[in-house]
Design goal:
Blueprint: E1 2-7, H1 13-27, E2 31-36, E3 49-55, H2 64-72, H3 82-88, E4 96-103, H4 113-123, E5 127-135, H5 147-162, H6 166-172
Parallel strand pairs: 1-2, 1-3, 3-4, 4-5
Bound molecules: flavin mononucleotide.
């Protein structure tokens, strides 16, 4: 069973969460390929689950301007992220994906990168079967205590999913797309 993880990160926090999720998946014997969106690796051959991870920027997915803003705050953003990866992905009708986003969660409305991911996936006929949010203390991090442990646990839950299909699979995932 194979999972392709595509992640975008400006200050490295989302990347750390991706590594924790990957650890959980691998603990359960799942083969994982962890890539940065900027690598533009669109090889979905034999992929059972696509996992996308991105920071929330301005209540949605990062874009060129928001990445530039992060750059002015000390981040090292790439110019190609999850939004662009999804825009360029090949047809994968019937494919299944999971997604997570990271954010400060501050303020009344902090938005969702996952929702933006779900909309883009839908255009490719890909179903979002699970989603999660992980928190950072501030724009540049660090991660909120115990959130990496949560990410690892979520990875093990996703692993249970990878070997299954349809409705049965859904029962294994505690966190559904919002
Ligand atoms: C330009 C910009 C806009 C942001 N907007 C939001 C937001 O709307 N909601 C939120 O919860 N966090 C927001 N954040 C905080 C980011 O989500 C946080 O920097 C990110 O989770 C850190 O992950 P990274 O290290 O992978 O970049 C914003 C950060 C930046 C740089």
């Amino acid at each position: 069973m194979n999972v392709l993880v595509v992640v975008e990160s400006c200050f490295s926090n989302t990347h750390r969460f991706a590594e924790a999720v990957v650890m959980g998946l691998r603990e359960r014997g799942i083969e994982v390929r962890l890539t940065d969106a900027a690598d533009q690796d669109w090889d979905l051959t034999d992929v059972d689950l696509l996992l996308l991870g991105a920071p929330i920027h301005n209540r949605g997915l990062p874009n060129r301007l928001s990445r530039m803003l992060a750059g002015t705050q000390g981040a090292s953003p790439k110019t190609f992220g999850v939004a662009e990866w999804l825009d360029g992905m090949p047809e994968w009708a019937g494919g299944r994906a999971a997604a997570f986003d990271t954010g400060t969660g501050r303020g009344f409305i902090h938005g969702s990168a996952v929702n933006a991911i779900a909309k883009r996936l839908e255009r490719h006929g890909v179903e979002l079967v699970a989603s999660e949010r992980f928190l950072v203390e501030a724009m540049e991090g660090p991660v909120v205590p115990k959130q990496l442990a949560r990410a690892r646990l979520w990875g093990t839950a996703l692993a249970s999913y990878v070997g299954k299909t349809g409705e049965t699979a859904r029962l294994w995932i505690s966190s559904k797309p919002k």
